[in-house]
Write a structure and sequence with these properties.
The protein is of the alpha/beta class and 253 residues long. The protein has helices at 28-39, 63-67, 71-89, 106-112, 140-148, 150-159, 165-171, 183-195, 199-212, 217-232, 235-245, and strands at 4-9, 12-17, 46-51, 56-58, 95-99, 102-104, 116-120, 124-126, 163-164, 176-178. It has two domains: 4-195, 2-enoyl-CoA Hydratase, Chain A, domain 1; 199-245, Lyase 2-enoyl-coa Hydratase, Chain  A, domain 2, CATH 1.10.12. The longest helix is centred in the N-terminal third of the chain and has 19 residues, at 71-89. A hairpin with a 2-residue loop joins strand 1 and strand 2. This is Enoyl-CoA hydratase/isomerase family protein.
Length: 253
């Protein structure tokens, strides 16, 4: 069985972690499979990242594999891991994580690489890398502060503590909390809602949000204006308005 599966839901693709026996621990092979999977879903309207393991999303890096590595092998794996996480962050379409059970270390960084995180009541998230003498290396030190701010990110990263689902929702570590066992269905439903909208508008709005995170308000408003202009003169805008007037679903060009 492949470590990563691809499932098709029409306009939505699902990338499913499938290293079940190892609790989806991030190995070199799984990371390489993620790069190939993201390359295959570029043309979809939205993507879901899920887990085939019934009780866990991803427990983080495969430390048993790393324990056998030479320094050179460790650095070679680092390049593969950076490509894997970068391929998720760099996807040109919205990405929704479906989380249940433990999502720790690199597992939580996979979720943080997504635009939205749907988690069920069994979820436990955290970045415990400092407990084993390393630092988050899949984007955690950058993505988490952008999601929840410096103070909370520092608290979680420097203590390495695990955060259960209810607290994670309250702190903004996840976006939607759903009943146990429903995270995948809820994530696919959310991705389907996104996919039903104008792909031009979704892409430009998403780009404006991301680019505006690290600039001042004036620069951010200029970014928004550019996104608005790029959208308002598109065929999608024309079709959207026409469909609204004619009281029908739009057929996005």
């Amino acid at each position: 069985m492949p470590d990563v599966e691809l499932l098709d839901h029409g306009p939505v693709a699902e990338i499913r972690l499938n290293r079940v026996a190892a609790r989806n621990a991030l190995s070199t092979q799984l990371a390489a499979d993620l790069v190939r999977a993201t390359a295959a879903v570029q043309e979809k309207r939205a993507v879901v990242l899920s887990s085939a393991a019934p009780t866990v999303f991803c427990v983080g890096a495969d430390l048993k594999e790393r324990d056998r590595m030479t320094d050179a092998e460790f650095m070679a794996q680092r390049l593969v891991f950076r490509r894997a996480f970068g391929s998720l962050v760099g996807l040109p379409v919205p990405l929704v994580a479906a989380v249940h059970g433990h999502a720790l270390g690199g597992g939580f960084e996979l979720a943080l690489s997504c635009d939205l995180i749907v988690a069920d009541e069994t979820a436990v998230v955290g970045l415990p890398e400092v407990r084993v003498g390393i630092v988050p290396g899949g984007g955690g030190t950058q993505l988490l502060p952008r999601r929840v701010g410096y103070g909370l990110a520092a608290d979680l990263i420097l203590t390495g503590r695990h955060v259960p689902a209810a607290e994670a929702a309250r702190l903004g570590l996840i976006d939607r909390l759903v009943p146990a066992g429903t995270d995948r269905d809820a994530a696919i439903e959310l991705a389907t809602q996104i996919a039903a909208n104008s792909p031009v508008a979704v892409a430009n709005a998403r780009n404006a949000i991301r680019r505006g995170l690290d600039v001042d308000l004036a620069a951010g408003l200029d970014i928004e204006d550019s996104a608005w202009r790029a959208t308002v003169f598109s065929d999608d805008r024309r079709e959207g308005v026409r469909a609204f007037v004619e009281r029908r679903r739009p057929t996005w060009p």
